[in-house]
Amino acid sequence: MKKAYSVIGANFGDEGKGLMTDYFCRTGGSVINIRSNGGAQAGHTVCTADGKRHIFSHIGSGSFAGADTYLSGYFILNPMLFSKEMHILGKDIGKIFIDRRCRVTLPCDMLLNQFAETMRGSSRHGSCGVGIFETVVRSRDKRYRLDYGDVLKAGRAAVRRAIQRIHAEYCPRRAEELGITGAAKAELTDMLANAILTENYIDDLYDMAAMCFVTDEQIIEEYDTAVFEGAQGLMLDQNRTDYFPNLTPSNTGMQNIRAILDRLEKRETEICYVTRSFFTRHGAGRFDTESKAMADAYGLTDKTNAPNAFQGVFRYGWFDLPAFQESLAQDQQHIAAGERISVAVTHLDMTGGMLLCPSGTLSPEELAARISAAALYKISGETAADVICQPANTAL
C-alpha cells in the first residue's frame, strides 16, 4: 500500500520539520514532498551527512533526499524568493510541480507588510516581512486576486496591467487601513511606481514557470510515498484565537492535508508531530514558559534563527506539556481512523536527552506515552542519520 507522512510542527515553529521531512523522504521508492500550507516565510533547515546545509523556504525540504516537490493549492507562491532559492540550490533538485490554484505574492504585498510592521514599532506582530498575510487579504477581493494558473494564461502584458491596477486602486486604500501615512506612504508610492521592480518581478515569475510543471493534487498518485511538509506550528494556526494576533494566516496542522488526502486513493498514513526538547518562539506574541535564564543555563543556541528587523530575537522557554497536549488534541479532529500518530523530539543533545519542563525533566518515552504515539523519533544531531526511531513496544 502507498504511504503518506505528515510532518507537523507542534509549537510555535522552528521545531525541526525540515530534518524530519528529509528523514521521511529517504524511506525508499518514489517520493513527492508536498508543501501543504503557508509560503516562502518558512525556514526549514536541512543538513546532510555529506556536509550540505540549506534553509528551505520555497522548495520542499526533501530535495536533498531526491524527492520531487509539489506546491499544493494551499501554498502561496513568491517568484522573487523562488528565484533566490533556485540560484542557491541550482537545478539538480528534482521536479517541481505547482498547483494552478496557488495564490501569488506581489512586490506590493511584501512592501505593505514591511512598512506596516515598521509603523507598528514596539507593537509589531512578528511577521517575517515576506507578504503572506497581505497576499491573503488582497486575494479576498476577486478583482485583485492573482492565481498561478490565471497568471500563466494571461500573458506578460496582462500581468503588468493587473499589477499596475493593484498599485493604483488597491495599495493606497490598503496602506491607509494599515496606518501607513505621511512620508511613509509617499515613500511606498514611489517604490511601487518603479517600473524596473515590476519588470524584474515578471521576469522571475516566468522564469519560475519555465522551470516547473502545472498540476493539481492528482500528481501525488504517481508516487509511492507522499511526505507532507507543514509550515509554522500548531500554536500559530490562524484559528488559535488564544494566541491572537500573533498568528500565521493558514492552517498549520492536518486540516489542509486531510482535504488533500480525502481527494486521493487511501494511503497508509502517519502523522508526525515535531517538537524540540524545549520551546522556542521567533518574534512577538504570547509565550507562557519563556525563560532566558533556562536558555542561559543550558547554553541553548540556534544556527538558523538570527535576530532580524521584522521578527526580532529568537526566544527560548520550558517545554509546555499542557500546551503541547492541547495543540495535538485540537488538531486530531482532522485525523482519520486507522492513521498512525508519532512524535519526534529534536535537540536532545542540548538537554541531556530529556525534555525541559518547568517542574522537572520529562523523557521522550514518557511524552510518547502521554499522547498514545505509535512511534517515537529521538534526535540528537542535525541530520537524518541522527534520527533514532523506536516502535510502539519500545517507546511506550
Walk me through this protein's architecture.
With 396 residues, the chain is α/β, with parallel strands linked by helices. The chain has 2 domains: 3-99 and 216-395, Adenylosuccinate Synthetase, subunit A, domain 1 (Adenylosuccinate Synthetase, Chain A, domain 1, 3-Layer(aba) Sandwich), CATH 3.40.440; 103-212, Adenylosuccinate Synthetase, subunit A, domain 2 (Orthogonal Bundle). Helix content is 34%, strand content 20%. The chain contains 13 helices and 18 strands. It has a 10-stranded mixed beta sheet, sandwiched between helices. Strand 17 and strand 18 (387-391) form a beta hairpin. The radius of gyration is 21 Å and the shape is globular. 47% of the residues are buried.
CATH architecture of the largest domain: 3-Layer(aba) Sandwich
Distance between the termini: 26 Å
Beta-strand content: 15-25%
Low-pLDDT parts are none
Rg on CA atoms, Å: 21 Å
CATH superfamily label of the largest domain? Adenylosuccinate Synthetase, subunit A, domain 1
Mean pLDDT: 93
Largest sheet: 10 strands, mixed
